[in-house]
């Protein structure tokens, strides 16, 4: 058990770079804004897994603590961006509510949640070391309750996943986000960090699959539209 957690976190860190290249390829095919924002999130998540995997090798001290401070800062900065990604995917799925105003508003909400998280959780952050299943890490001192903003963001994307499920008959964004919601709700002090990290990976895969499906759907609609246009003319 003591080696499974570090190896799995390290594997997730490497796999998330595969997802980054996947997202960039999808962006090149469609210039989808979601596929520009998602790699930013994935870089942060990959760093998170990397630091968790090598914590025991670095050892307790200022170096690991500083790296962990950056880990928490990146988390607070990028998690709300899932809202932007979700709205962009809804827009690409043809949701009428995901218009330009809502898309701009999603950025404002994401920045607002980031500011709240940084102001209430990062400023004055105190960390203490803990070891669980071979993972040496620093976590928030006097931590109480689940990560509220992370759960709120997951719930928002979950609702978008339901909408895409009904609109495109595509349930995988909903299911991937549901996995992330459950994984992030589990107390890391009791079950460790792997559940949350693995569930975030699953959510990222579901976002990429949804974009890929959306592209295939749009490509199948355009030829039909073009043929109807030719017939009418």
Please provide the count of β strands. Answer: 2
How do the helices and strands follow one another from N- to C-terminus?
HHHHHEEHHHH
Tally of helical segments: 9
Could you tell me the mean pLDDT?
Answer: 89
Q: How much of the residues is beta strand, in percent?
A: 5-15%
Strand order of the largest sheet: 1-2
Helix content: over 70%
In short:
The chain is mainly α and 233 residues long. It has helices at 4-30, 34-58, 62-78, 81-92, 100-122, 148-168, 172-185, 188-191, 194-232; strands spanning 127-132, 135-140. The protein has a two-stranded antiparallel sheet with strand order 1-2.
Describe the protein in words.
- The protein has 233 residues and is mainly α.
- 78% of the residues lie in helices and 5% in strands.
- A two-stranded antiparallel sheet has the order 1-2.
- A hairpin with a 2-residue loop joins strand 1 and strand 2.
- Helix 2 (34-58) packs antiparallel against helix 9 (194-232) and helix 4 packs parallel to helix 6 (148-168).
- It starts with a helix and ends with a helix.
- The model is unreliable at 222-231 (pLDDT under 50).
Task: List the main descriptive attributes of the protein structure presented here.
disordered C terminus, mainly alpha, 78% helix, 233 residues, 5% strand, globular, two-stranded antiparallel ribbon, 9 helices
Produce the secondary structure layout:
Layout: H1 4-30, H2 34-58, H3 62-78, H4 81-92, H5 100-122, E1 127-132, E2 135-140, H6 148-168, H7 172-185, H8 188-191, H9 194-232
Antiparallel strand pairs: 1-2
Helix pairs in contact: 1-2, 1-9, 2-3, 2-4, 2-9, 3-5, 4-5, 4-6, 4-9, 6-7, 7-9
